[in-house]
């Protein structure tokens, strides 16, 4: 993996930084690069902790609960709180999506062609995450 | 909200001043329209606060408030999920990741970038500058207990010419311009190097 690939894209990082700063604030290129490296290291650090937990529990898949646990264990309580709420909302949305799929599948037996076009019109980001099946977390 | 964009005026060789051009560029309020670089909702509440602790408290309160109104994960992601996934998989111990992991990490990372930027900006302001430099980020990392895992990315000692100049002034005059611990640390490490 090249250096560019192993880091988060600097343009995205720079845009995020500007969002929280006043209009008169400027950011040097080196500062953006440093934040880019720190953010990438943040992901790696939390992932390492989460994957250690999975390994200890003989699980192969790192899931949202492991991320939440890792953030709490590492003292990143604000992040754990926020991620916990996101996880809750994500699972709610997934349940609603599954239920609406189920009801659309029931009527799909009656109207197969129309349902195919309905699924194609769903927001692609949401479908991309869910269409390969539910989360593979071990319970 | 509108923001004036003023191009710098300059002197002609004969001494006359070219008038500045002023154009008004509309700045959209926070929305998912990234073409206009929206500002974070917390920014309005944070402006005017002088203490780092107050700024961070308001920042996290705003985040939690926003989460209550969160509409769904099909909204714009500030960080590309494919790249987040690549970083996750770069760990040799990670075999498989669930579908929610990149999305959650993307959000956590957004918060991280915002918080680190805020911390750095508070230091930038304490040095009466308006440009965040690398040394501001370094000081933000060093002054935070929660960012201890980043300490290896951060070099020790004075980091930039402006800090060195300031510390030279402090040591020469024998008093502190700022009372923050970061300034003390920098001054002490600098004077330690000098002796």
UniProtKB/TrEMBL annotation, chain A:
Superkingdom of origin organism: Eukaryota
PROSITE patterns in alphabetical order: NFYB_HAP3 (PS00685)
Originating organism: Thlaspi arvense
The keyword Transcription regulation is assigned to this record: yes
GO cellular component terms listed in the entry, alphabetical order: CCAAT-binding factor complex
Name used for this protein in its record: Transcription factor CBF/NF-Y/archaeal histone domain-containing protein
Keywords: Activator, DNA-binding, Transcription, Transcription regulation
Record field: compositional bias (Basic and acidic residues): 91-100
Signal peptide annotation: none
Source lineage: Eukaryota, Viridiplantae, Streptophyta, Embryophyta, Tracheophyta
Segments of this protein annotated with the region Disordered: 91-139
PANTHER family on file: CCAAT-BINDING TRANSCRIPTION FACTOR-RELATED, NUCLEAR TRANSCRIPTION FACTOR Y SUBUNIT B-4
InterPro entries named among the record's database cross-references: CBFA_NFYB_domain, Histone-fold, Transc_fact_NFYB/HAP3, Transcrpt_fac_NFYB/HAP3_CS
Gene Ontology molecular functions: DNA-binding transcription activator activity, RNA polymerase II-specific; protein heterodimerization activity; RNA polymerase II cis-regulatory region sequence-specific DNA binding
UniProt cross-references to Pfam families, sorted A to Z: CBFD_NFYB_HMF
Similarity remark: Belongs to the NFYB/HAP3 subunit family.
CDD domains per UniProt: HFD_NFYB
Domain Transcription factor CBF/NF-Y/archaeal histone, residue spans: 7-71
From TrEMBL, chain B:
Transcription factor CBF/NF-Y/archaeal histone domain mapped to chain residues: 78-141
Keywords attached to this entry: DNA-binding, Nucleus, Transcription, Transcription regulation
GO biological process per UniProt: regulation of DNA-templated transcription
InterPro entries listed in its UniProt record: CBFA_NFYB_domain, Histone-fold, Transcr_DNA_Rep_Reg
Domain of life: Eukaryota
Example of a GO cellular component annotation carried by this entry: nucleus
Cellular compartment(s): Nucleus
Record-level Gene Ontology MF annotations: protein heterodimerization activity; transcription cis-regulatory region binding
Classification via PANTHER family: HISTONE-LIKE TRANSCRIPTION FACTOR CCAAT-RELATED (PTHR10252), NUCLEAR TRANSCRIPTION FACTOR Y SUBUNIT C-10 (PTHR10252:SF124)
Oligomeric form and interacting partners: Heterotrimeric transcription factor composed of three components, NF-YA, NF-YB and NF-YC. NF-YB and NF-YC must interact and dimerize for NF-YA association and DNA binding.
UniProt family annotation: Belongs to the NFYC/HAP5 subunit family.
Protein role: Stimulates the transcription of various genes by recognizing and binding to a CCAAT motif in promoters.
Protein known as: Transcription factor CBF/NF-Y/archaeal histone domain-containing protein
Organism: Thlaspi arvense (Field penny-cress)
């Amino acid at each position: 993996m090249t250096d560019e690939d192993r880091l988060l894209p600097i343009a995205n990082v720079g845009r995020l930084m500007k969002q929280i700063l006043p209009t008169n604030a400027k950011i040097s290129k080196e500062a953006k690069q440093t934040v880019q490296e720190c953010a990438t290291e943040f992901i790696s650090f939390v992932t390492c902790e989460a994957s250690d937990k999975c390994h200890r529990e003989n699980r192969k898949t790192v899931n949202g609960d492991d991320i939440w646990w890792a953030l709490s264990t590492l003292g990143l309580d604000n992040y754990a709180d926020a991620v916990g709420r996101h996880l809750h909302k994500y699972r709610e949305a997934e349940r609603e999506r599954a239920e609406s799929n189920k009801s659309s599948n029931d009527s799909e037996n009656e109207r197969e062609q129309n349902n195919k076009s309905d699924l194609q019109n769903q927001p692609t980001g949401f479908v991309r995450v869910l269409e390969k099946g539910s989360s593979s977390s071990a319970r | 909200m509108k923001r004036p964009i003023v191009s710098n005026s300059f002197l002609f060789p004969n001494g006359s001043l070219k008038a500045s051009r002023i154009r008004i560029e509309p700045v959209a309020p926070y929305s998912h329209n990234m073409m206009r670089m929206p500002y974070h909702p917390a920014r309005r509440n944070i402006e005017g606060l002088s203490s780092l602790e107050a700024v961070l408290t308001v920042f996290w309160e705003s985040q939690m408030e926003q989460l209550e109104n969160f509409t769904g994960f099909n909204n714009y992601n500030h960080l590309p999920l494919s790249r987040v996934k690549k970083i996750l998989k770069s760990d040799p111990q990670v075999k498989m990741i669930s579908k929610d992991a990149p999305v959650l990490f993307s959000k956590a990372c957004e918060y991280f970038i915002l918080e680190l930027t805020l911390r750095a900006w508070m230091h930038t302001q304490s040095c009466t500058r308006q440009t965040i430099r690398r040394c501001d980020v370094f000081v933000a990392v060093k002054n935070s207990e929660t960012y201890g895992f980043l300490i290896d990315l951060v070099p020790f000692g004075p980091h930039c010419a402006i800090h060195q100049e300031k510390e030279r002034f402090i040591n020469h005059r024998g008093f502190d311009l700022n009372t923050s611990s970061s300034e003390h640390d920098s001054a002490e490490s600098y004077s330690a190097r000098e002796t």
